[in-house]
């Protein structure tokens, strides 16, 4: 017969880490970053949703020409870049915290965090490249699909 420990019983105290093994204020800075980036992300995301869905003709107006017109402006490139970077750092930090809390084995924790950081780097690099190398006027495209500022060639 298997016995289950009383869930209301107090847990044995954990051994306190020595002063030499603490990581300083890294977790505090991560906690503060999560709060600040969350507030900034709310502004960025709701601004993005307002411009893309509420202002103008709504979701039916979002097409290649709409995105090309937005990304022709450095303002919107920086806006979307900030949104990408903050969302990815915010989400990666949150998942890192979850991995640290729930992955019990150090090897499992290392593999999960390595995959997490790899996914972060790939997404941020590709997203940044797309934002800054996007050509709003690709040659050989039908004129009706190009934004108004492109000259048909």
TrEMBL record:
A molecular function (GO) term: metal ion binding
Signal peptide interval: none
Location(s) in or outside the cell: Membrane
One of the GO biological process terms: tricarboxylic acid cycle
Keyword Nucleus: no
Annotated transmembrane regions: 28-51, 71-89, 110-134
Any single GO CC term annotated in Swiss-Prot or TrEMBL for this entry: membrane
Listed cofactors: heme
Keywords associated with the record: Electron transport, Heme, Iron, Membrane, Metal-binding, Transmembrane, Transmembrane helix, Transport, Tricarboxylic acid cycle
Superkingdom of origin: Bacteria
Matching NCBIfam families: succ_dehyd_anc
Role this protein plays: Membrane-anchoring subunit of succinate dehydrogenase (SDH).
Protein name in the entry: Succinate dehydrogenase hydrophobic membrane anchor subunit
Gene name for this UniProt entry: sdhD
């Amino acid at each position: 017969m298997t016995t289950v420990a009383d869930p209301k019983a107090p847990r044995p105290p954990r051994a306190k880490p020595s002063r030499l093994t603490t990581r300083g204020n890294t977790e505090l800075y991560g906690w503060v970053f999560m709060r600040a980036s969350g507030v900034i992300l709310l502004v960025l995301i709701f601004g993005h949703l307002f411009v893309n869905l509420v202002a103008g003709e709504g979701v039916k107006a979002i097409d290649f020409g709409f995105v090309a017109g937005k990304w022709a402006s450095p303002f919107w490139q920086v806006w979307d870049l900030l949104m990408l970077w903050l969302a990815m750092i915010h989400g990666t930090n949150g998942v890192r915290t979850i991995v640290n809390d729930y992955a019990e084995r150090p090897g499992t924790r290392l593999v999960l965090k390595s995959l997490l950081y790899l996914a972060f780097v790939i997404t941020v690099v590709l997203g940044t490249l797309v934002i800054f190398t996007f050509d709003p006027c690709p040659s050989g495209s039908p004129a009706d699909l190009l934004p108004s500022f492109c000259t048909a060639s």
